[in-house]
Design goal:
Blueprint: E1 2-13, E2 16-27, E3 31-35, H1 42-49, E4 57-62, E5 65-66, E6 75-78, H2 90-99, H3 105-118, H4 134-146, E7 152-156, H5 164-179, E8 183-187, H6 191-197, E9 200-205, E10 208-214, H7 215-221, E11 226-232, E12 244-249, E13 253-258, H8 264-272, E14 277-283, H9 288-296
Parallel strand pairs: 3-8, 3-9, 6-7, 7-8
Antiparallel strand pairs: 1-2, 1-4, 4-5, 9-10, 11-13, 11-14, 12-13
Helix pairs in contact: 2-3, 2-4
Length: about 300
């Protein structure tokens, strides 16, 4: 089931077309990666989903109903540009921001205490934001975004400024919310985080949707008949193989690119009959970074968008 649907949405600013008839389907209870270079239209899409701006054309559906003002209370949005009040105390700030989401003072106070303890910030509850490090401020912003238990959570570069320990702490909480059924949109430039966290991805470029699918299906779609073999034996064997290009070779593994006339089964049969001792043989699936560069790096990529795979 799709929790969020964006249908044919466009948005222009001062005669600049930032989003051009984009349609997205965000599955319920999944982590959905929204990717693209600067100027791709990601922030414009997010602003329309959160109700900050409205589409020039197209529709957005929130849990099966047209997006409305009251849905903002069921949404948590942490933008890349942080928005804490520097002179307010941490606890007061969280309570105030949660009250904007409809929580009573008592509910907001209890939620704030719980989350400050979970993110190891209880000792800083009565300190001003300016007293906190950048990483601590990031955690306060995260608490203010999630403590009202949103149905839809939108995170834009949530790990910026966090050390590895605190990044792991936030990552754990993101997975916990997913397990509890929260639908999460995750926007970042870091491909390794997308591969680690996301179930689905959408790639945008120049205001258009280039692809959208399950992340593993995307990687399979872009595989190029490359195989990785772990072995033991005479490495000169690889030089004698026909219709196979050796991309990388060490004493322990080989990366092979087979021609279109050679299948993985053919290569396996050759290896079975070889003098080598084979430990593993697998199809090499490209990383998201490789796919990203291949698609976004092409000239005039916007002329032939891939709406889905």
């Amino acid at each position: 089931m799709d929790f969020l649907k964006v249908e044919g949405v466009s948005k222009s600013y001062d005669n600049h077309l930032a989003v051009n008839k984009v349609s997205l389907k965000v599955p319920q209870g999944k982590i959905y990666g929204l990717l693209g270079p600067n100027g791709a239209g990601k922030t414009s899409i997010i602003r329309m989903i959160t109700g900050i701006t409205v589409p020039d054309e197209g529709k957005i559906f929130f849990n099966g109903t047209p997006l409305a003002r009251h849905h903002t209370r069921e949404t948590g949005y942490m933008p890349e540009e942080r928005g804490l009040y520097p002179k307010m105390k941490v606890m007061e700030q969280i309570i105030y921001l949660l009250s904007l989401k409809g929580l009573s003072t008592k509910e907001a106070t209890e939620a704030a205490k719980t989350w400050l303890e979970r993110l190891e910030l209880s000792d800083w509850a009565n300190r001003k934001t300016t007293d906190l490090s950048k990483g601590m401020q990031q955690k306060v912003q995260f608490i203010s975004t999630v403590a009202h238990k949103p149905q839809l959570l939108i995170l834009d570069e949530p790990f910026s400024g966090l050390d590895p320990v605190n990044a792991q702490l936030i990552e754990k909480e993101i997975f916990n919310m997913k397990e509890e059924g929260t639908t999460i949109i995750f926007s970042t430039h870091r491909m390794e985080q997308v591969e680690e966290l996301c179930d689905h991805i959408a790639l945008m470029s120049k205001g258009q949707l280039m692809l959208e699918n399950d992340i593993q299906e995307v990687r399979k779609q872009f595989q190029k008949n490359v195989y990785r073999v772990e072995y033991k034996g005479d490495r000169s064997f690889w030089e004698r193989m026909n219709k196979v290009e050796v991309l990388e070779l060490t004493d322990k593994f080989a990366m092979l690119k087979a021609s279109e006339s050679i299948t993985g089964k053919d290569i396996m049969q050759i290896l079975i009959n070889s003098p080598l001792e084979i430990f593993s043989f697998e199809l090499h699936l490209p990383r998201l970074r490789e796919i990203f560069i291949e698609l976004v790096g092409k000239k005039n990529i916007h002329s032939k968008p891939l709406k889905s795979i």
